[in-house]
Design a protein that fits this description.
It is a single chain. The chain has a domain of 90 residues. It is 49% helix and 0% strand. It contains six helices and no strands. The termini are far apart.
Length: 132
């Protein structure tokens, strides 16, 4: 059985191609639609960098706001995505989140699960935190 595209690309958040570059990004990517990373830790690091921007620059500090931006309703069942992230993290959708290791690692792992249908290796999530 083939692993999910996000895991094959070391891009567990299925981050789309854009002009924004991340540490550990493979350029050029062999995937025309989604970024690729040298390893899974750098893919998770990219998720965390985006989450940091959402929280600090755009003041999106709860699951409902973060996931609505990450997975907009025009492309996704955003409410289902929010509900699953809420369940996986144990954080209420409207609870104000802090940018700390426990919160961001749990949120990143939940995003990876929703995007790929499989739980990621949590050691790679933790390794990403230490790359920030």
């Amino acid at each position: 059985m083939k692993s999910p595209r996000g895991f094959r690309n070391n891009n567990p958040g299925n981050i789309r191609q854009s002009k924004q570059r991340f540490k550990g990004e493979v350029v050029p990517s062999k995937d025309a639609a989604f970024k690729q990373f040298t390893d899974m830790a750098h893919g998770f690091r990219a998720i965390m960098c985006i989450l940091r921007t959402y929280m600090t620059k755009y003041e999106l500090c709860n699951i409902a706001k973060i996931i609505t931006r990450w997975a907009p309703p025009a492309e996704n069942d955003t409410q289902a995505y929010i509900s699953l992230v809420e369940k996986l993290t144990g954080f209420h959708r409207f609870k104000k989140l802090q940018f700390n290791m426990v919160t961001i690692c749990n949120l990143s792992a939940a995003i990876a699960f929703v995007e790929n249908g499989e739980m990621p290796n949590y050691k790679e999530v933790i390794a990403a935190w230490h790359l920030l």
